[in-house]
Amino acid sequence: MPVNRDVYRLFTDAHPEFLPDDHEWEQGTRLQAANTTYGPAFTGIPPGAPEALVRWVNDVLDGSAVFRLPTWDEACDPAMQPLLPPGCSLWSQPPRDWSDRRPVCWAPEGVPHPWSVPLARVYERAVNSFLHDLQHFNFSALISYNRGMGDFPYQHTDEAFQELLIDTASQVYRRHLADDPVATFPAINISSAQALIRPFSPELFVGLLESLPELVVEEVRRVFGHDNSSTAGERNLANSIAALGAEIVARGVEAEPDASDLLRLAVMTLANRSDEMEVQTTCRDIALGITTLQDRADGLIPTREVVLLVRA
Questions:
Q1: Around Cβ 99, how many Cβ atoms within 10 Å?
Q2: Contact assessment for residue 44 and residue 30, using Cβ atoms and an 8 Å cutoff
Q3: Measured between alpha carbons, how far is 292 from 208 in angstroms, rounded to an integer?
Q4: Can you tell me the mean pLDDT for 145-150?
Q5: Dihedral angle at the C-alpha atoms of 287, 293, 299, 302, nearest 10 degrees?
């Protein structure tokens, strides 16, 4: 059966951390999905909530019935489709061969996946932010670490975060980026229509950020057999990317649009300078991830995820 708005509201009374962060929910006017065979389904259930929701339902029922999420194979079964509102995606158990057993979001054929964007979208965001920065940055002042400059676009009262932004931007622009974004970012095949093979999630994004510095260090050791000082810039940039991304997630992407643009530019820069495929791939996926989070925060990706409870 689908989880409807009333059930989800009761759930969030016990677990307010999973309250949807939008005006329609606060006003009680969020549109329901089209009716399914078993009634309306609440849409926009966020990552992390499906597991907690199933546990909560089973605790409330206290053994009178036991429910679970559908398996990946069940989600793919055409017989499941009448239960799913049109245009919606479904939280399910992951495929059997995945080591990560957290729920994943399955989308029917023809429905855009709510946690994945094409690389063409990354390119579009990159070009727009890159050209914006070209118009507003005083590059010579930035490179000389003149923190008194008045036109630096990332203005924050949090001094530690401001220092992180300036340090990351300086590392990026010290690499003499070309004015043409296409020429600047060739290494990650930015014109490809490829999206993440594995549906994206905020947890995956944090894991990618955490893995990047060690991947860069491993690349150095693989090439030189030791920690070569000539690649200190790449290591420093990888560390800045990890720190900046973690801070953006903590603050909320919607609150840090300029910092999110800078993060995407930084991973593209690192990918462009790396010869290691694993580093390039991780950088690509971080660029995809921050773009997905931005588009969701801006309302460009509909929040249409639903939960169907299946009898265990």
A1: 5
A2: yes
A3: 14
A4: 46
A5: 100
CA distance 116 to 285: 10
Token pair of 140 as six digits:
């010579």
For 197-234, write each residue's pLDDT tens digit: 455 677 778 888 999 998 988 876 766 655 555 567 78
Question: In this structure, are residues 173 and 136 in contact, taking their beta carbons and an 8 Å threshold?
Answer: no
Please check the confidence at residue 271 and state whether its pLDDT lies above 70: yes
Per DSSP, what are the bridge partners of residue 67?
311
Give CB contacts under 8 A, 24+ apart, made by 309-312.
309/1, 309/2, 309/3, 309/54, 309/57, 309/67, 309/68, 309/69, 310/67, 310/68, 310/69, 310/70, 310/74, 311/65, 311/66, 311/67, 311/68, 312/66, 312/67, 312/68
Percent of the chain with pLDDT over 70: 73
Contact call for residues 83 and 37 (beta carbons, < 8 A): yes
Amino acid at 208: L
Q: What proportion of the chain, given as a percentage, has pLDDT over 90?
A: 17
Q: Phi-psi bin for 299: left (phi > 0), alpha (psi -120 to 50), beta?
A: left
Its pTM stands at 0.76
Residue 106: phi and psi, rounded to 5, are -100, 135
What six digits make up the tokens of 261? 């643009």
Beta bridge partners, 2, equal 308
**What's the rounded Cα separation, in Å, for the pair 29 and 239?**
43
Closest of 110, 117, 119, 113 to residue 92, by C-alpha: 113
> What distance in Å separates the CA atoms of residue 54 and residue 106, rounded to the nearest whole number?
17
Q: How far apart are CA 303 and CA 35, in angstroms?
A: 17
